[in-house]
Amino acid sequence: MKGIIAPRQQFCQKTEQQAVMRHIQDQDLPLLDVLGLVAPGSSKSTRRQWLAHDQVTVDGRNVRDAKALVRAGQEVCVGDKQPLLPEKVRIIYEDRHIVAIDKPTGLLSVASDRVLLRNVHAILKRHYRPNRIYVVHRLDQDTSGVMVFALTEEACLGLKTVFKTHSLDRRYIALVEGEFEQKEGSWESYLWEDQALRVHSSDDPKSGKRAVTHYRVTGSRQNVTRLEVTLETGRKNQIRVQSSTAGHPVVGDTKYGASSDPLKRLGLHAEYLSFAHPITGKQMAFTSPLPKRFDRVVAQAKTEK
User: Fold this and answer.
1) 267 and 137 share one domain
2) How far is the CA of 147 from the CAs of 101, 144, 150, 184, 245, in angstroms?
3) In this structure, what CATH number is given to the domain that contains residue 155?
4) 60-85 pLDDT, tens per residue?
5) Which of the following is catalytic: 140, 142, 253, 295?
6) Sign of the C-alpha dihedral, residues 236, 238, 239, 244?
7) To which H or E segment does residue 99 belong?
């Protein structure tokens, strides 16, 4: 087996347009075999296409590995092929109030003085025209992964409260330089931004805003370490600055001291976002598959459960 899919407390998501096949597995089997139980008439070629197009989730998490082991009791879902917008922006979920998307690296979240149209916000405004699209959080231009936008003013106010009070779970995968003696830990400091828009870290509470980042080592190879990172706060460039201050800059992040670029992009991916729906109160959980290049540099530790 290539890997084991860890159980997570998530559920299959579906848009109002997307039909979803659901299946609760009753014994441990490879995912490709489980898909044969979900859709008995399907061919192996068809099932592999579902995996390649990110149509398969296990306990709410997108999985592409046909050999990944599905445990008894886990929920497997197969949905329609997810809509792909310009610039490879992929819609993960949408309803009347919110839309969750998968942002590619290199794309701004919102417009800047020099870039007005090539950004996620502008793309969604064109897609949902004439409806308004409300920005509630951002990802750095070179960070990929899950983002959520509001489609109504009521949802916008609710989501802004969620982010302001940190009533959500966010998980990133980061590839950083160097090796770690401790397998897990936390970084806490105070961040401030200079006039050149560069963020700095300090131990002085009076110098900036408190930032707390938790990390766990999940693999390493040739002086590059793979981290699973969760945020207790959500400051600008938080992971990039604090990891660099700790002596482990994110690979490809020359702004904050990286000396290597094995991915030819920033080694940071927003893998998971979960929060209570601002209107219905239902717990929502969205995932973005890790770009394949990350695993080519540092695969997830085989011993991880």
Assistant:
1) yes
2) 5, 9, 10, 26, 26
3) 3.30.2350.10
4) 777 889 999 999 999 898 877 667 78
5) 140
6) positive
7) strand 98-103
